[in-house]
Amino acid sequence: MIGSMPVDARTLLHELTKEARDLDIGNTVARVSASQLTSLVFYRDFVSRNKPVVITGAIDHWPALQSWTMNYITERMGEAKISVARTPHGRADSVVRLDGSQYFALPEEEQMPVQEFFTSLCRENSGEVIYAQAQNNSLPEEFGPLLKEVADLEWATLAFGTNPEATNLWIGGDDSMTSFHKDHYENMYAVVKGRKVFTLLPPSDAYRLYFQTCTVAQYRRNATGKLHLEPEEPSRGLPWATVDPYPPSDEQMEASKLAHPEYWDPDLPPPLQVVVGPGEVLYLPSLWFHHVRQEARADVCVIAVNFWYEMAFDCKAAYAKLADQLAAELHSNSHAN
Amino acid sequence: MIGSMPVDARTLLHELTKEARDLDIGNTVARVSASQLTSLVFYRDFVSRNKPVVITGAIDHWPALQSWTMNYITERMGEAKISVARTPHGRADSVVRLDGSQYFALPEEEQMPVQEFFTSLCRENSGEVIYAQAQNNSLPEEFGPLLKEVADLEWATLAFGTNPEATNLWIGGDDSMTSFHKDHYENMYAVVKGRKVFTLLPPSDAYRLYFQTCTVAQYRRNATGKLHLEPEEPSRGLPWATVDPYPPSDEQMEASKLAHPEYWDPDLPPPLQVVVGPGEVLYLPSLWFHHVRQEARADVCVIAVNFWYEMAFDCKAAYAKLADQLAAELHSNSHAN
């Protein structure tokens, strides 16, 4: 039996990236009107192809689009407490470099009434950033009083053939950012207020995100009341994407271009960027890597509702695993050399 | 810039094979009743997953199921001529080894009235095998008088969102065999008479078929009237699968196990085999490798109608290309060592 067959993983992965884009994905996310979409057409043209799309006019009937001001939500929610994530910088669940180590930084978690949450959100220069980002079916679990202001996406439920596994509400300001990650769900992401900026790469492009094992740590208050990063005990490692697509300084951009050349390579198709505004729904396909920013502007906060549907674990999932394996080979050998 | 990164193509491909089977494909082709299938369910559960299925009860209304005897077809077709493929052995469009060379053997092509075709088919020990296998939209093009005996698969057309690109009629006996190949179409394959035996491998398993470049040749009659294989001029090479899943002798089986170990490897999932009988429709997904045999028995010939629908050139096609490239790497290195 013959042993290792050398293969040029970089060439294969670059060709895969380009082939997928040239054949189908393209470089921009299409927009379609809900009136042009039946469940079958949605499934055939997008879900089956694992291809994102923004659907307009699908949630025009949601009372939330008109009613969800901070005052209204505060009034409806009363004293009910919600889960809030807190970090010094707005980058919960992301890679933080500290003292020469690379951490996966979990946020501090607390419960607070909505009024306190909004007050804090409006406060400038607080030195801390809060985000309502609980992903535990938070819409019915924590925001029950708001449930009747939104409605199920019946045509999506019909298409997927199953009810959503979870429905979550997200409220955050411009300082909050969600780092690159993927979910084992089909995701219908509806924006109610403000704008969400998604930066996307398909599953084939795992190698461009430079996954590395990071030490899991959590933000906690120290004795002086300041947030600091505490490594978990016992120590735990978690592979996470180390690319920041929006380096906050020129120096960090230059550093990223050196450390993460496949992400920035001008010969490769760029990540897809799509802005999703009020009343719009992004179909974010299973296993797509996504980075999320907010653009609240005068709205102060961005409010969104997402529906997670069970994904089909089919050949596309098997191929995504192959892409992950080729990525790991590519980068482990880079380090070896 | 770092060069080639060593990667074990064999390990990656074996894992891909097993993952795809374990996640979704399994080891047998499912059977579902047409009454349980809407266009959406068909697309979601099978087409989207690039997964074969046999549908029963979908063509019960075809008059052909009752009327298509050889006499009836002969009467309806009159003097009209059909395209017939002829070989010494029934293996048209397959790899033939002759005088130490490997050929891709095209059949001799001729036109003959249906009555002559059926008479030849019924004749035993003729030393030649004929098969009506023209794939040029032959049902309307050559068998027009039979068109009203069958009907479109409306639910499939709805599902694919497009009319078939071609509809073909196939008539052949037990000696005819179609070698492993793939088509860039979605295929709905309806059996009217007799049984078809399909041996299937998904696109990920290209490496198990040992594609090699063969010299294209065609059977022609020589001066003594015997069929012989004539290489094309100018010489042309065509990559084709060299595995015969049904070696006709013990020696050839042993030789195949040595030459094509990945095909026969007991640690890998076996190719899927499915028998499609009268009134049944096989959904044969795009890019799946398929080998086809006939089981006519008392029926003398097997008659089938297939509908080719345009496939979606999406990420699944990009991944299939990657699987082909890894297969080529694996086998080129095998030869180098």
Keywords:
alpha+beta; 5-stranded mixed sheet; 33% strand; 10 helices; 9-stranded mixed sheet; Jelly Rolls; 337 residues; homodimer; globular
Task: List the SSEs and their pairings.
The structure is a homodimer of 337-residue chains.
Chain A: H1 9-25, E1 30-33, H2 39-47, E2 53-56, H3 64-67, H4 70-77, E3 81-87, E4 94-98, E5 101-106, E6 108-113, H5 114-122, E7 129-132, H6 138-142, H7 154-160, E8 166-172, E9 177-181, E10 185-193, E11 195-201, E12 211-221, E13 227-231, E14 237-241, H8 250-259, H9 261-264, E15 272-276, E16 280-284, E17 289-295, E18 302-310, H10 315-336
Parallel strand pairs in A: 1-2, 5-12
Antiparallel strand pairs in A: 2-16, 3-6, 3-7, 4-5, 7-8, 8-18, 9-17, 10-16, 10-18, 11-15, 11-17, 12-13, 12-14
Helix pairs in contact in A: 2-7
InterPro entries (chains A, B): Cupin_8 (IPR041667), JmjC_dom (IPR003347), RmlC-like_jellyroll (IPR014710)
Family (chains A, B): Belongs to the JARID1 histone demethylase family.
Protein name (chains A, B): Clavaminate synthase-like protein
Quick overview of this protein structure:
Two copies of one chain form a homodimer. By secondary structure, chain A is α+β, with helices and mostly antiparallel strands. Chain A is 28% helix and 33% strand.
What would your notes on this structure say?
Chains A, B: Belongs to the JARID1 histone demethylase family. Chains A, B: This is Clavaminate synthase-like protein. Chains A, B: It comes from Coccomyxa subellipsoidea (strain C-169). Chains A, B: Residues 133-324 form the JmjC domain. The structure is a homodimer of 337-residue chains. The first copy, chain A, has 337 residues and is α+β, with helices and mostly antiparallel strands. Chain A has a single domain, classed as Jelly Rolls. Chain A has ten helices and 18 strands. Chain A has a nine-stranded mixed β-sheet. In chain A, strands 4, 5, 12, 13 and 14 form a five-stranded mixed β-sheet that branches. In chain A, strands 9-17-11-15 form a four-stranded antiparallel β-sheet, with no helix packed on it. In chain A, strand 4 (94-98) and strand 5 form a beta hairpin. In chain A, helix 2 crosses helix 7. Chain A is globular. Mean pLDDT of chain A is 95; it is low at 1-5. The interface between A and B is large, with 51 and 51 residues.
